[in-house]
Design brief:
about 160 residues; Rossmann fold; single chain; five-stranded parallel beta sheet; about 55% helix
């Protein structure tokens, strides 16, 4: 097996357990992967700038401080990633996710986009920039397994079980 440890950045909605599903799948497959993500505690992400740098009277500047501080983490981890997975959820508009997808594409990072079929039209440009468009987390894990191991997922799982 290749000794490379792959860095996978998980961007996108924070209101479901999709990251945990991918982490569980990656662990079950025994993939040589390190998963990174933005801060997913909504309040911490929103308030980090003013908590660290001081309060602001204007909501705009409150949000701006947080966005700048969050971009240190996000930008660094996306730039360092081997693969970027971006999840667009069902409930909210994920403008940050769209920005992360565009940033990763501009850096030439392979993108795996994860969303349900009902968003095909809205995300057609994002999908066009992706290497993979998946519908569920299982497909993401299977795509990572194939890309990393060069084997069909069932072959890889079988090989891991035999070892």
């Amino acid at each position: 097996m290749n000794e490379k440890v792959w860095k996978v950045y998980l961007s996108g909605e924070i209101h479901s357990d999709w990251r945990e599903q991918i982490a569980d799948g990656v662990a079950q497959a025994g993939l040589p992967v390190v998963l990174n993500a933005p801060v997913t505690v909504h309040e911490d992400s929103d308030d980090c700038g003013v908590a660290i740098l001081g309060s602001e009277e204007s909501v705009f500047w409150h949000d701006h401080k947080g966005a700048l501080l969050n971009s240190v983490r996000t930008g660094t981890l996306i730039a360092d990633a081997d693969v970027v997975v971006v999840r667009f959820g069902e409930k909210y508009k994920q403008w940050n996710a769209a920005f992360d997808a565009g940033y990763a594409a501009a850096l030439g990072k392979p993108l795996i986009i994860l969303h349900q079929e009902e968003h095909n039209h809205a995300l057609k440009e994002v999908d066009a920039a992706a290497k993979v468009v998946a519908r569920d987390t299982h497909q993401v894990v299977e795509a990572l397994t194939y890309a990393i191991c060069g084997a069909m997922p069932e072959q890889w799982y079988g090989k891991q079980a035999a070892e």
